[in-house]
Every structure is written in structure tokens, then in C-alpha cells.
Recover the amino acids of this structure.
């Protein structure tokens, strides 16, 4: 072997333990989102977060370690939460209130940055929006009272609607607050509210089928991993049962639902990376104000509207951000 090649080889061997040591000391970011790990949309959200972190300089395998987890029910939430002590992450990035609740129960010291959470103050995650005060901060999607807006919009599209089912994960922290907000608005509209919580797809299907036996019904699908994972099942069911439905983000009408009004969920996920970056650079989550959502978008699926025999008012189409033909 030539002396030059030998010295290069020795140098490489000497550098290898140093590289491994540097990676071992790199901060660990746990990206834990609500939903099925097999869902392409959840996988896309994971990629968006990782890309946003890379843009901020945090590259997996170079100066950071990034672990990805997804869970969609209480049992899975508990299983991932149990990993926190073993993984010892530097910061946890969460999506959806059930996931945040599980993470917050597990640790009061590891910084947690959330998105897709409605009212972190009422749910006990932070002391206030301006001064969270603990180990949790992040980005909200709307307040509980926003749920009344979905009923108003659905009634505007379907004036004959006199009954509405409200569906979400049974164990969602905001379940009761959403239903109460919808009932407050419904009382002045002459609309009967039927809570239809579910723990799995079988319960969800049974609840919608039972509700759909009577006429003049509509459905409000509240944000939750259960609804996200079963969006195509829900779209097919509501179409077969002739139940107009409203959802929280564009993903649902793109999958066959009638309409949605809410934030851009992918951009919302991207924003959380900026808070992770600040925390890794020394900022304290308790001193970082919770950010409220800014832009909201309205989306209609006209193919679904036609199949349901619904003519969306021109005034609403004029306000829409997107119309899926």
C-alpha cells in the first residue's frame, strides 16, 4: 500500500469515531402527528415538517436526529408517549389535541410545540396565549366557538337542513366544547344537534348510517385523526346517505366531501418548525406566545354537490378560495 493511501485511511478511521460522537450529541427532535402512519397525507405532513427543519439548518443525520411517530387512538397515543423517556428528545413537535394531551401527560419538562390544536388554554395545556408558562407552546387553528361557523355555512348551502350530526374522536379533549358551541348557534336556527362520537371506523359508520335514516340531515366533521384517516369512507357514506357535510380543511373535499372552511393544514405544520428552531437555539417555550391562525380558506367540491342535488349559492362560490370541479 502506498504511504499516502495508508495515511488517508488512518485519517478516515480517526475521523469516524468523532463523526459518530457528534451525531450522538445532536439534538433529537420527535415529530409526533395524529393519524395513521400509512396515510399518504400524514406521511406528506411529516415530510413537510422535516423539509422546513432542513431549511432552518436542522438536517437529520448531520446536526440533528429526527424521529417520526404517528398515532390515531388512545392506545397508540399511550404507546408513543411511553417512548418519550427512552428517546429523551430535545423537543417534541405534535399535531392534534389528543397527541398533545398524551405528550403533556408524559412530560412537563421536555419542550413541546403543537399545531392543529383549538383552545390550549381551556384544555389546560398553557396558562395563557401570551405567556404559556410551562413546557408547551405552538400554533392554534381556531377557537371552539368557530364550530358554530361551520353550522352557519352548512345551513346557508342547505337551507332545508333541520338536523345535524357532529362527529369526532370520542376521547378528543375539545369534544364537549365543540358540541356546546354548535348547540348555541343551532338553537337560533331551529336545527337539532345529534352528537355522534366514535372510537373507530365501525362506530363511525354505524353512527352516520343511523343518523342518515331520517331526512333533512347534515354532518359536521370535527378535526381528529379518526376523521382524517376515514375521510374516504365518510365521503362515500355521506354521499350514499345524501348527507351534506362540512369539514375543517381542504383535504376532505379533495377526497370527496362537500365543503371545508379552515386553515391550510400543511402550511400550519410548516410553521411549527420555526418554534422548534428557536427552542433548539435556547428559547424557552413558556416565554413564547401561542400563535393564532391567520388565513382561512373555503373550498367546495361541485361534483359532490351535484351528486347530492345541491346548488351552492353563487354568493358562497364567489367567496370560495377553491372550487373543485
Amino acid at each position: 500500500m502506498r504511504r499516502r493511501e495508508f495515511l488517508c485511511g488512518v485519517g478516515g478511521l480517526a475521523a469516524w469515531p468523532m463523526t459518530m460522537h457528534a451525531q450522538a450529541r445532536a439534538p433529537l427532535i420527535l415529530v409526533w402527528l395524529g393519524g395513521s402512519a400509512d396515510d399518504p397525507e400524514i406521511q406528506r405532513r411529516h415530510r413537510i415538517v422535516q423539509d422546513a427543519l432542513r431549511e432552518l439548518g436542522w438536517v437529520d443525520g448531520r446536526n440533528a436526529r429526527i424521529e417520526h411517530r404517528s398515532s390515531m387512538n388512545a392506545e397508540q397515543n399511550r404507546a408513543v408517549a411511553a417512548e418519550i423517556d427512552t428517546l429523551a428528545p430535545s423537543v417534541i413537535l405534535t399535531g392534534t389535541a389528543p397527541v398533545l394531551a398524551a405528550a403533556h401527560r408524559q412530560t412537563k419538562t421536555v419542550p413541546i410545540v403543537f399545531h392543529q390544536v383549538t383552545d390550549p388554554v381551556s384544555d389546560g395545556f398553557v396558562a395563557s396565549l401570551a405567556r404559556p408558562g410551562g413546557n408547551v407552546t405552538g400554533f392554534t387553528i381556531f377557537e371552539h366557538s368557530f364550530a358554530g361557523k361551520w353550522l352557519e355555512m352548512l345551513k346557508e348551502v342547505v337551507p332545508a337542513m333541520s338536523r345535524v350530526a357532529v362527529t369526532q374522536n370520542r376521547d378528543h379533549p375539545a369534544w364537549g366544547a365543540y358540541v356546546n358551541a354548535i348547540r348555541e348557534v343551532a338553537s337560533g336556527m331551529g336545527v337539532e344537534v345529534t352528537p355522534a362520537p366514535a372510537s373507530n371506523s365501525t362506530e363511525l359508520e354505524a353512527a352516520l348510517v343511523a343518523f342518515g335514516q331520517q331526512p333533512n340531515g347534515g354532518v359536521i366533521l370535527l378535526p381528529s385523526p379518526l376523521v382524517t384517516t376515514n375521510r374516504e369512507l365518510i365521503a362515500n357514506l355521506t354521499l350514499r346517505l345524501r348527507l351534506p357535510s362540512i369539514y375543517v380543511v381542504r383535504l376532505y373535499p379533495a377526497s370527496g366531501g362537500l365543503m371545508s372552511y379552515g386553515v391550510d393544514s400543511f402550511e400550519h405544520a410548516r410553521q411549527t418548525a420555526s418554534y422548534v428552531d428557536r427552542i433548539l437555539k435556547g428559547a424557552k417555550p413558556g416565554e413564547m406566545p401561542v400563535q393564532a391562525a391567520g388565513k382561512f380558506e373555503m373550498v367546495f367540491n361541485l361534483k359532490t354537490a351535484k351528486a347530492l342535488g345541491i346548488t351552492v349559492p353563487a354568493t358562497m362560490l364567489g367567496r370560495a378560495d377553491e372550487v373543485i370541479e
In short: The first helix runs from residue 3 to 25. Residues 1-23 have pLDDT under 50 and may be disordered.
